[in-house]
Structure formats: C-alpha cells, structure tokens
Amino acid sequence: MHSDNTTATDHSPQQIVAFLQGDRAAAKVAGIRRYGGRAFHLEAISIEAHLPAVIDDGRAYLPGRLAADLVLDFLSHPDLSHDLAALCAAQKIPIVASGKKAALPSVMTTPT
Q1: Which of 13, 76, 81, 94 is at 20 to 30 A from 107, Cα to Cα?
Q2: What pTM value is reported for the model?
Q3: Burial (Cβ within 10 Å: 0-12, 13-18, ≥19) of residue 93
C-alpha cells in the first residue's frame, strides 16, 4: 500500500531504487527494466568511487533521503550495505540485499 492509499495495481508504478557497485547486478537491473514493463519505475544509483576498506560513515556515498517503495542492495562493500540498511529502516522502506552473508535487522536476504 502506498502512502496515498493506492495499491501497486493502481496505475502508479512501484518506485524501486537499486544501489550498484561496479558492474555487479547490471544484468539484474536490466531484467527488471525489460520484464517489469510499466509496473516499476527503477532508479539505479551506481557508486563507482574508489572506496576505502573501512567506511565509518556512509553518508558521503548515500543519499540523505530515499523516495522508494523498495530498495535493492547490490553493493559489495559491507559498510555501505549496513548504512543503506539503517537508512531504509529509519525511513521504513523494505530492502532486499541479494547474496549478503550476514543478515541485518529489517533486511530481506536472498541467494544470488
């Protein structure tokens, strides 16, 4: 259910934001765009910067707010994935983190 009391079957597409790092998951994003038709509006945010091994605060790499019904985490950096999960939890946005080894609270993990 959307905040304006419409459902996904009403004529508004579901807003999905996918976070990518490098070429990881490009084929998955392309598949969502190809087969999702008008059911989804997909925004892909690619983090291409050279990242340090440890990121104490991911806010420099992540947006402050998300306009999404669902977030897909295809990031390979564990600190960014953790901070993205915290951002989604604070905004009450469901997040799917494909292939993550460690489950975080409020994150749905799926095999790759």
Answers
A1: 13
A2: 0.81
A3: middle
Q: Residue 79 has which token pair?
A: 């600190």
Alpha-helical (H) ranges within the chain are 26-35, 78-91
Torsion of CA 66, 72, 77, 82, to 10 degrees: 60
Give the CATH number of the domain where residue 32 resides: 3.40.50.2300
Question: Residue 9 domain-assigned?
Answer: no
Residue labelled with tokens 């915290």: 86
Report residue 65: phi and psi, to 5°.
Answer: -135, 150
- Structural domain that includes position 38: 14-110
